[in-house]
Amino acid sequence: MFNWVGNKLKYKDLIFEKINNKDIIVDPMMGSGNILLELLKKNKTVIGNDIVPLMPTLFKNAQNYNYSEKDIKSVLDHWNNFSNKEEYYRFRDYWNIHYENGGGSKNFLIETFLLLKMCSNSMVRFNQHGKFNQGFRGLGKKITFFDDKHPKKFEIQLKLFIETIKNGKNKFISIDVLELLDTLKKHQQRKLKDMFFIFDPPYLLETGAYSRKKNSYTLNTELEIYKFIEEEKVNFVFFNYIHRDGKEHLTLKKWIEKNNFKYEEISSKTSTGQGRTNSKEISEIIVYG
């Protein structure tokens, strides 16, 4: 649904295979939420959380509205179909104000949908002041970023998104990941064995592909997640780099070895730079148990 660098949609079959027969899926750092949408289509109960409130807010509020081609065209017309980069940056400033005010209006879903299609590298990035600051992807040889066919196409995508959310059993919240895990331990102890956890945290060997609240995710946070998995013996998948730029995630490696967890390499290269045309050697893995 939403463009988002680093989202795990391409690994959905691998995730579904690990989930097996679990019916309650918890994604403590849901990012784009695309995996949760696919799980809702499979009649799973999902709990989606992210300390950045953008996606939890969109997923909750989307259930209150319906959208037509006319609604989408109205937004595009207002911004002259984004025929130059200045309109994108004015729109981005407008969007930031809307987001800071809670993003509660009907058009906020459309506006976010468009913003993430136009921004560079589909990268969701906020600065230290909490403002979305990703640049414009550019027009290339096009006269406008969107053409006359886009409103109808987007209407179909938004309707499917809303129908999936409305028809599924879901809960979307925005709190710190450790607060979420602590709450589940206290109030859902009996149900933990029925849950499956998808952990896709910021990669500690990554350097700035996207940002969350300043210093909100550290090695100590990751160690607490390890502890939760070990003590509660939950079923899970955990994504991360174990190697990048000549560095090794030794803490992750030792944790895997200590618990005899299984893992698979899912990627050995990552794209970097404007247009993501450069590549770096990495080892991205999925750990499971």
Q: What is the total tally of β strands?
A: 8
Uncertain segments: 208-212, 272-276
Corresponding CATH architecture of the largest domain: 3-Layer(aba) Sandwich
What's the CATH topology name of the largest domain?
Rossmann fold
Query: Share of helix among residues?
Result: 25-40%
Task: Summarize this structure as a short list of keywords or feature phrases.
Rossmann fold; 289 residues; alpha/beta; Adenine-specific Methyltransferase, domain 2
Can I get a quick summary?
The chain has 289 residues and is an alpha/beta fold.
What features would you describe in this structure?
The chain is of the alpha/beta class and 289 residues long. Helices cover 40% and strands 18% of the residues. It has two domains: 9-52 and 174-288, Rossmann fold; 63-164, Orthogonal Bundle (Adenine-specific Methyltransferase, domain 2). It has ten helices and eight strands. Strands 1, 2, 3, 4, 5, 6, 7 and 8 form an eight-stranded mixed beta sheet that branches. A hairpin with a 2-residue loop joins β5 (235-244) and β6.
Topology:
Blueprint: H1 12-19, E1 24-27, H2 34-41, E2 45-49, H3 54-61, H4 69-78, H5 85-100, H6 107-118, H7 150-167, E3 169-173, H8 177-187, E4 195-199, H9 219-232, E5 235-244, E6 247-248, H10 250-259, E7 262-272, E8 278-288
Parallel strand pairs: 1-2, 1-4, 2-3, 4-5
Antiparallel strand pairs: 5-6, 5-8, 7-8
Helix pairs in contact: 4-7, 5-6, 8-9
